[in-house]
Amino acid sequence: MMRRTAPVITALSAVALTLAACSSGSGSGGAEPDDGGPITLDYWAWGTAQQPMVDAWNAAHPDIQVKRTDAGGGTDSSAKLVTATRAENAPDVALVEYNTLPAMIVAGVAQDITEYSNGLESEFAPGVWSQATFDDATYGVPQDAGPQALTYNKARFDELGIDVPKTWDEFAEAAEKVHEADPDTYLTTFPPDGFGGVAAFAQQAGGQWWSVDGDAWTVDFDDDASVAVADYWQDLVDRDLVSAEPLLTPEWNAKVNDGEILSWPAGLWAAGVLYGVAEQSAGDWAMAPLPQWEEGDSAVAFEGGSALVVTTSAEHPEAAAEFARWMGTAEEAHAIQIEQGQYPASLAGQELTLESEPPLLMPKQKDYWETAAEIARTTIPEISWGPNVNVASSAYQDAMSKAVADGTPLRDALTAVEAEVVDDMKTTGFEVTQK
């Protein structure tokens, strides 16, 4: 996550306060009825675990009731939050991915909840807690952690005689074997809109897209490691060994259900997402560590993972923070997360996984949570994210989609994204140094 240096927070906070002054004061929910009834909070969140968790909260907290809206996942939700905040109709609480939290601070969406967070820090490992805190100010309650792993269709792997790849070289060899054995089937997908996935692959290889020294930022999307990653996927796309298409479309979902897409290298949350779109294939799947760029180097990056933020529009921030705290630390909430395949962010939740059944997608893999714990132990703890991840994600989707459609180099798309990110940061008022 972005390093917690005072100049960074000063810069972020200055912009955030300016925007918040124009947008705070009335949310879309959080109103307390005149008859003294329960407080009602509006909550934006995606994912299969969220509604059961909200239902559990509502059953146990009659005085604070929560209405959940699925406003889309990750980047989509964050963009809508910015718009809703400026229109003064944002929800009271929202789920935000760690990498977009700096942008939510800059946009005046997430408010400082330090006064409501006493004792929370001890509930999380330092690397997780740091992703929701900046210069000792708390802006969110971590809910899940998303270190990358390989979720794969074990039944189809066994059918085709494919070994689980331990390195990315082996992964490419497996992709070739799969497509030779069944031309309608691909080992995995290279999604042109997969900003978070490629960012994590690059971080695993040693890339760093944003870094900061004092109040000066360096932006480097086409460093050597990132270009090597782009070239790796370029080779697989050019040889038609991976399916180059967006994820989670009806077409992609159908291919997953039909056993024509065999793996998803993504955060540990992938099990829950796949169960939501391919429930009929539950029991066919398993999870393994992500392939390594260098054999013996097991470090992986976070892809996703999220925290609950109290928005600057919340009329009852203390009640909203209480809900956020429960969602991130309550054992009942953890049990629901675990069943759905999420890896809890809290230490207690992670301990609970070791006593739990595997996720619904892979009920036969009895060592699932032990494997997840080992992956989590080797996750890169500190990654810098810039203040305009939303801009970067949108630029990435445009540039990568064009590159895939036109057959132009993916490495050039990274360079184009960098130029747009730098221009935006300079326009916003950040100091950006040359590489």
Report what the structure shows.
With 435 residues, this protein is α/β, with parallel strands linked by helices. It folds into two domains: 6-145 and 305-356, D-Maltodextrin-Binding Protein, domain 2, CATH 3.40.190.10; 148-301 and 384-432, D-Maltodextrin-Binding Protein, domain 2 (3-Layer(aba) Sandwich). The chain has 17 helices and 13 strands. It has helices spanning 6-23, 50-60, 74-86, 101-106, 126-129, 154-160, 168-181, 195-204, 224-238, 250-257, 270-277, 317-329, 331-340, 347-353, 368-377, 389-406, 410-428, and strands at 39-44, 64-69, 93-97, 133-134, 137-138, 141-144, 148-153, 210-213, 216-219, 263-267, 285-289, 306-310, 431-432. A five-stranded mixed β-sheet has the order 2-1-3-12-6. Strand 4 (133-134) and strand 5 (137-138) form a beta hairpin. The two termini are 20 Å apart.
CATH class of the largest domain: Alpha Beta
| Secondary-structure class | alpha/beta
CATH topology of the largest domain: D-Maltodextrin-Binding Protein, domain 2
Mean of all residue-level pLDDT scores:
90
Low-confidence segments: 1-32
End-to-end separation in angstroms reads 20 Å
- Structural shape: globular
Percent of residues in helices comes to: 40-55%
Radius of gyration: 21 Å
Q: How many helices does DSSP assign? A: 17
Number of structurally distinct domains: 2
Largest sheet: 5 strands, mixed
- Proportion of residues in extended strands: 5-15%
The CATH H-level superfamily of the largest domain is Periplasmic binding protein-like II
